[in-house]
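Hi team, as promised in this morning's meeting, here are the two structures we talked about. I've kept the exact order from the run log so nobody has to guess. The first one is mostly here for context; it's the second one we should focus on when we meet again. Sequence first, then the predicted structure tokens.
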Amino acid sequence: MPSIAVFRHDAYLRYWIMRQANSAARQMMAVAIGWQVYDIARQTRSVEESALMLGLVGLAQFAPVLLLSLVGGQAADRLDRKMILVVSNIGRALCMLALAASPFLAGPTALWLIYSTALAMGVMHAFSPAASGALFARLIPRDELRQAIAWNSLGFQAAAIIGPAIAGLLYIAGPTTVYVASFVLTLISIYAIWSAQTPKHEHVRGVNGRALIIEGLRYVRNNPVVLGAISLDLVVVLFGGVTALLPVFARDILHTDTVGLGLLRTAPAVGAAFIALWLAAKPLTRHVGAWMLGAIAIYGVAMIGFALSSVLLLSMVVLAITGAADMISVYIRQSIIQLSTPQIMRGRVSAVEFMFISASNELGEFESGVAARFLGPVGAVLMGGVLALVTAASWFKLFPDLSKTDELKPADEE
């Protein structure tokens, strides 16, 4: 286990609680939305058409991020990051209350409410990650940053394990129960960050918002290691993600229920948690670029295995492998950004990173829905696994600086 000494910093402890409460709430909400949308859609539509309806949820969440995340990045460098997190979490709590009312509406009306809420959640999500990423590095000394990153990963994976499993069980009592539980967790996150004694925000003065955005984009473009690490995640998860299609596999391929869906969503986090513990005990210090690209190749092979599986237990095992491989990639990417980016640039670089990540996640969900509409769910996942393998091989050539990266060094030591 990583050292718990990092939690002696009270502000970081409260920040960590906020992160994990939010993560658990989002995981639970995702299970409920996925099953509810697919269940409503299957009443009148085919499997392929219903999969597309699931993909539209991802599109609704991504659209605000595409338009506003860079604005959120410069806001994180100009405005108080703590207050950005408080306000965005209040917005999330209101969205969950709206979702709690959706089961009491007619099917088409409920779908429109869910899509509208997903759009609003996307607006909140366009501002909070940049503020969170930029604030995090100021809550602890630089020499404890790796331990804090490890605890952030462990906490996230724990929430990703527990949240979906609980949501699958709570859904037996109806989706409203899941949404109310998510609302309570969000209230906890609001109090945690509101009560944290964070450092006084250092405002960036004398530069307009547009210039800050351009500067952040230019920094990423001119740093081939950072650009390669961020874009790698974009391409792989954009085409190789399976999260949006899990309700389809659970109901119509593996023939299970919401409990099975919760287990499928939990499986990647279980694999990631094991790797997070390993990385906390033995952080990667050498050949990190090769480790990252190798992990992506393993991810692709495991995704092909999931597409071909028709047994719940086997599907869970290969999903756990995808989570383990993804954890290695995430750990290296976060370390690169936190260690190689100057403090004054972190908000903007975090915003660029998040725009790429959100594109890979939310837009990836839409891509999965579209691919499943024309190729079927199995064909869509097979295509994603193959593309992940192709991407891992291509990035060796496209980003040689990334593939040759050996050690990670803080920006002020370069």
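And here is the second protein, the one for discussion:
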Amino acid sequence: YQLIFTAAVMVINQKFFISGFKSLWHRSPNMDTLVALGTLVAYVYSVFALFTNQPVYFEAAGFIIFFILLGQIFEERMRNNASEAVEKLLDLQAKTAQVLRDGNYVEVAAEDIQIDDLIRVRPGEKIAVDGTIVEGSTTIDESMVTGESLPVEKSVGDAVIGSTINSNGTILFKAEKVGSETLLSQIVDFVKMAQSSRAPIQDLTDKISGIF
């Protein structure tokens, strides 16, 4: 039964063997190569041992693949969670803002805000971009950025962060960072970069696999 079950597991997950031996053929062995060689050697030896009444290691080959797959499932789940977090962050961005233009406040799309624009934010509204308060005082809920559960008191000269929520007072602030320069946009970029980049430990793992 172990022979048949392990063979089925190896056939179903043949991607490890295809990737592993391709890497070996190109003289750049990686973790897939180590998994492929380890499980294949354990299986072939166990087939020989089965007919010579020696201990078999079918379960070792099967469990190696199982644990590798389990790790990949966890990794994929983490990537999905990160993608959902990015989408939620993007949803937090303010869509419009009240910008002072020619002596009047007009509603402007967030992407059209320019540096040095004067923006009015009333109680309950989101702050569209990063900047510095030039008029008024209030408390701002910055929990989505800093994790601080209590609103932070802000007055003239204090910095404000885009997508945070103005709690009670009306303020006027000067835009200093817009578009991709805002703190929230940079956080989103860092998350995306983390999703697509390889951790240094992965390169080290491949080097160790090559040695083995």
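Starting points for discussion:
Helices lie at 2-12, 15-25, 31-50, 58-92, 143-146, 183-196, 200-211.
The mean pLDDT is 85.
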